[in-house]
Each structure stands twice: as structure tokens, then as C-alpha cells.
Specification:
This protein has 534 residues and is α/β, with parallel strands linked by helices. It has 3 domains: 173 residues; 170 residues, Glucose-6-phosphate isomerase like protein, domain 1 (Rossmann fold), CATH 3.40.50; 168 residues, Glucose-6-phosphate isomerase like protein, domain 1 (Rossmann fold). The protein has 16 helices and 22 strands. Strand 8 and strand 9 form a beta hairpin. This is SIS domain-containing protein. InterPro entries: GlmS/AgaS_SIS, GlmS/FrlB_SIS, SIS_dom, SIS_dom_sf.
């Protein structure tokens, strides 16, 4: 029996990668073959043993067919007769008819004959073999320098008799290798959002929407990046009474006023954040509805006290500064807001479909957009590296991005950035400016706020070491034409609800490269841990 690269979970939710013989796998082990360790999302493994036959399938993501049902379908195909090519064709046909963003690996054994398959609807598959060892992954960093590379919707097929890969032609060289986990995880964002898109039909989204439609008041609680992401729901759903507040402040001052008709939206990447857990427990006791948004739906403690669980689908995030999990949270809130607006009659079917299509198109374009943003962010970070800190300013839809951006600049680059709302900047903070500081403005997408920014444009770059405008419009470009020490960043404005996604990705890349130039421990900032449990 060959060895396969496996990704295994232990009870503490840590993940290890190793080459393991399937015969040595302990009973009940939950494992993933093929899917990379950043792509756990919703996953499940199924083991079927019948006499001399064994079938093991591992599925991650959101196929339209329920996971166990899809696994049984593959078993039936495996049991069918025919040539090796017929077998591969039936598998390819069955998997190609599935919709959704998912990856699957199957191992099948019939007496002495063995098969290994891999398939993904939305990711490349990297596959290689060395003697009896077969290697499969969906992330290029884990692959050898030269490897067989299959595009999405291709079937990787290995037979113990012929040792062939159906559909492969020649090995390709893998070029991009990431130095830090943070930048690697930023580049995972397109795949996170592709999975998020298929949450639109997920039962939890529909249940949460019903709660929101029938509630009087909505509280959004979280800590750190989770709270910053939660701030955006107020802008995605401005027609409703939504209050975003730190979990600890909610416990101190708002629990006593919580009503049974209220809904609490708790956001926790780990599912185990102490302050959020405290709020969820007390809210549940008080009879309020609890919707939890978490990246750890299977092992997070928050699931015990929640009425509805919505997964973020970002997978394991190794770097302490949250990147893909933050953007994944925005994606979940975006879908939740869209479905709620539809249920409330605020948008019609056509508008809903248009918004969803825009989101899908955005996820498809993102792999090409990210390198462009990174090139610009890297150049600007060089200018900022000689400065001691500054302000990051915005208003409206992108104000939460300014708050999150300031956190990222502190965490990843040790640059003291203070987030300030556009108008509040004009009421005092500008007095503290000096030549060794920067101002970063995320230009608002709301017309009134854009006009206000243009009206006071000179106020934002007087006596500054450097001035950055993210999302600079033509009007800004004209005003900045003859002004030194200004960097302008062009960002797509075509869909204002997607503009925050563009803005946060640029700020994440800027924070990363500033950290590189400042030579900080980007993935593990001093004094910080990924989760505050107690």
C-alpha cells in the first residue's frame, strides 16, 4: 500500500503534515488528504470498508450534494465495472456536475488494486510521485519545485497498476514562494471568498436571516479584528437598528438591557475568545437569539450556546495578524446583509442576483488584482518605513477598514497608527502632526463624504512626511498633481459594497511590506497570541 501526504487533526485543533501509511491510521482519525492546511473550511472524511474493499474520501468546502451522499456516490462508481479509463471518466463526469467550491480526495482499494483521485472545482491540484509515495496538495508552497499541475475541474487519477496521472502532460516549475505566513494567507483570500460565495444557499444563512427579519435590535460583539469586521454590518444594513460594541463593554454595560426580542451576532475567529463566550452564554440565558460567526464551527465552544452557526471558511490561519479570516468575515456579513435585505423587501430578485454576480466576478478577478496591489503597497511602504507612525482616516463604509488597518499597521509593522473618522480628524488630531508622520486616507465611497474630503484636502497633507490616498478619484489626482510626498492608489469603485474588500486587501499588503522594511517579526508580534481564552 502506498504512502500519501496527509493532513491530520488532533483534539486541540492543531494540524500536522506528514507522510503516513493508511494501514497505520488509528481508528476514528479525522484527516484530510490533498487539501492544504489553510483550507479546512467545512470538511469531512468518510471511511467505508466492505470485505476486501476500502473507500476513503475526504471533502472540504461546499459541494451542492451533501458530503456523505457525495461520498456514497463515489463508492458506487468505484464498485462499477469497466476499464481504468472508463472508471476515470465516470468519476470526472460525476464530479463535474457538482456545483460549489470544494476539493475532494478519494482512496479506493479492491483486493490488490488501488486508486487515488483528487479533484477541485476552484483550485489547481499539484501532484507528483516518487516510487511508492504519492504527493497531492492544492497549495504550491507544499509542492516540489517541479510538479504536475492540473487546473480546476481536472481529475488527478493514480492507479497502483499503471501509476499514471490522467490529464497531466508535463511538469511545471513552481515560482512563488512566500517568506512569511501573513503574505501567504493574504494570497489565500480569493479561495476563501470563493467558498464564501456558496454560503448563499447554506441553511445557516437562511436561519440567521429569519432571526434578523423578526428582531427589534441587533448587537454585534467581538474583539480585535472580529469586532472591526463586525462594524461593517452597520453599513451593509443601515436600515436596521444595529449596534457594534466590544464584547467586554457589552458585558459591562449592555447585558442588563438585553431584550428577548434582540439578536446578538457574535464574531470569533477561534470560536473560543473569552469575552465573546461570556457574552454568548449570558445572552442565551437571557433568551436572546444568538448568531455566531466563527472560523472554527466544529471545535469552537461558542457553538454550544448559539442558535445559528455560520462558518467563515477561511481555514487555519497561522500568522497572528488576521488577514484572510477578516476578509472572510466581511464576506459572510456581506451575504448575510444581502439575504436580509431581500427578505425585508429592500431589494428585489434582480438586484440580489446582480450583487451576487458582482461578488462572484470579484473573487474570480482577485488573483490578478492582488499582485497589482502588492506592487503599489511595496513601493509606498518604502516611503513610510522612515516615519514613526501616523493616522489612517476614512468615513462611512470604509471607516471599519481604517480601524482594522490601524491594527494591522501596529501588529505587523510596529508602526503606531491611529484610526480616525474623517470629520473627527479636523477637530484636533491634525495639531499633533509632524514631518516624521504619515496620513493614510481611504477615500470614502459616499458622495457627501467624498466632497467633504476634497473640500479639506490640503488639511490632510500639511507638514507631513508622507500622504497616501487609497481609492483616489480623478478629482484627488488633479489636486495632488503638483504636490510632493503624496502616493495615490487606484481601487475599483464600480460596486460600493465591494469597495471595502479592495481597501482592506491593500491595507493588509501595505502593513505586511512596512513590516518587512521595519524588520519586525511579522507573523508573531511581541506580546500577542492568536486567541485570548482567559
Amino acid at each position: 500500500m502506498p504512502k500519501f501526504d496527509l493532513i491530520t487533526w488532533n483534539k486541540n485543533n492543531y494540524i500536522s503534515i506528514g507522510s503516513t501509511n493508511l494501514k497505520e491510521m488509528p481508528p476514528g482519525t479525522n484527516f484530510l488528504l490533498n487539501t492544504n492546511k489553510y483550507e479546512t473550511g467545512i470538511n469531512s472524511s468518510f471511511i467505508i470498508r466492505k470485505e476486501e474493499s476500502t473507500a476513503i474520501t475526504a471533502i472540504e468546502g461546499l459541494p451542492k450534494t451533501p458530503l456523505k451522499e457525495l461520498s456514497e456516490k463515489l463508492w458506487q462508481i468505484f464498485q462499477s465495472t469497466g476499464s481504468e479509463n472508463d472508471f476515470a471518466k465516470r468519476l470526472k463526469d460525476a464530479l463535474s456536475r457538482e456545483t460549489g467550491a470544494f476539493s475532494i480526495v478519494g482512496y479506493f482499494k479492491e483486493r490488490e488494486e488501488e486508486f487515488l483521485i483528487a479533484f477541485s472545482t476552484y483550485r489547481d491540484i499539484f501532484i507528483d510521485q516518487n516510487g511508492e509515495s504519492v504527493f497531492l496538495t492544492t497549495i504550491n508552497e507544499l509542492a516540489p519545485e517541479e510538479v504536475y499541475r492540473l487546473p480546476p475541474n481536472s481529475l488527478a487519477f493514480w492507479s497502483s497498476q499503471k501509476r499514471t496521472f490522467v490529464g497531466t502532460k508535463k511538469k511545471t516549475r513552481i515560482s512563488r514562494q512566500f517568506k512569511h505566513r501573513m503574505i501567504r494567507e493574504i494570497y489565500e483570500t480569493p479561495y476563501v471568498l470563493k467558498r464564501t460565495y456558496f454560503l448563499k444557499d447554506y441553511p445557516s444563512i437562511q436561519l440567521a436571516t429569519e432571526m434578523i427579519r423578526n428582531t427589534e435590535r441587533i448587537w454585534v460583539v467581538g474583539s480585535g479584528s472580529s469586532l472591526n469586521g463586525g462594524l461593517e454590518l452597520q453599513y451593509f444594513l443601515p436600515e436596521l437598528d444595529i449596534i457594534a460594541i466590544p464584547a467586554f463593554e457589552f458585558k459591562l454595560h449592555k447585558l442588563s438591557s438585553l431584550d428577548k426580542d434582540d439578536t446578538v451576532v457574535a464574531i470569533t475567529q477561534s470560536g473560543n475568545t473569552w469575552g465573546v463566550l461570556e457574552v454568548v452564554k449570558e445572552s442565551k440565558k437571557g433568551g436572546a437569539n444568538v448568531i455566531s460567526i466563527t472560523n472554527n464551527p466544529s471545535l469552537g465552544k461558542v457553538t454550544k450556546y448559539s442558535d445559528v452557526i455560520i462558518p467563515i471558511l477561511a481555514g487555519y490561519e497561522a500568522a497572528i495578524p488576521a488577514t484572510k479570516s477578516f476578509t472572510g468575515t466581511l464576506g459572510v456579513l456581506y451575504l448575510l446583509a444581502l439575504t436580509s435585505r431581500k427578505k425585508l423587501g429592500l431589494i428585489n430578485d434582480n438586484e440580489m442576483e446582480k450583487r451576487l454576480q458582482n461578488f462572484s466576478d470579484f473573487t474570480n478577478k482577485l488573483p490578478d488584482i492582488l499582485p497589482q496591489y502588492e506592487t503599489s503597497a511595496k513601493t509606498i511602504a518604502k516611503y513610510l518605513s522612515n516615519l514613526r507612525g501616523g493616522y489612517i482616516i476614512s468615513a462611512g463604509m470604509t471607516y471599519p477598514i481604517a480601524v482594522e488597518g490601524a491594527l494591522k499597521l501596529k501588529e505587523a509593522a510596529y508602526s503606531h497608527a491611529e484610526p480616525i473618522e474623517l470629520e473627527e480628524y479636523l477637530h484636533g488630531p491634525s495639531a499633533a502632526l509632524s514631518e516624521d508622520m504619515y496620513n493614510i486616507v481611504i477615500q470614502p465611497c459616499e458622495e457627501f463624504a467624498k466632497k467633504r474630503f476634497l473640500q479639506k484636502f490640503e488639511k490632510f497633507h500639511e507638514n507631513l512626511g508622507h500622504f497616501v490616498v487609497i481609492g483616489a478619484t480623478q478629482e484627488v489626482q488633479k489636486k495632488a498633481k503638483n504636490t510632493e510626498n503624496i502616493s495615490l492608489v487606484n481601487i475599483d469603485y464600480s460596486d460600493t459594497m465591494l469597495y471595502p474588500f479592495h481597501a482592506v486587501l491593500f491595507v493588509q499588503l501595505l502593513s505586511y511590506w512596512l513590516g518587512v522594511y521595519n524588520n519586525t517579526p511579522i507573523d508573531f508580534p511581541r506580546g500577542l497570541v492568536k486567541m485570548v481564552e482567559k
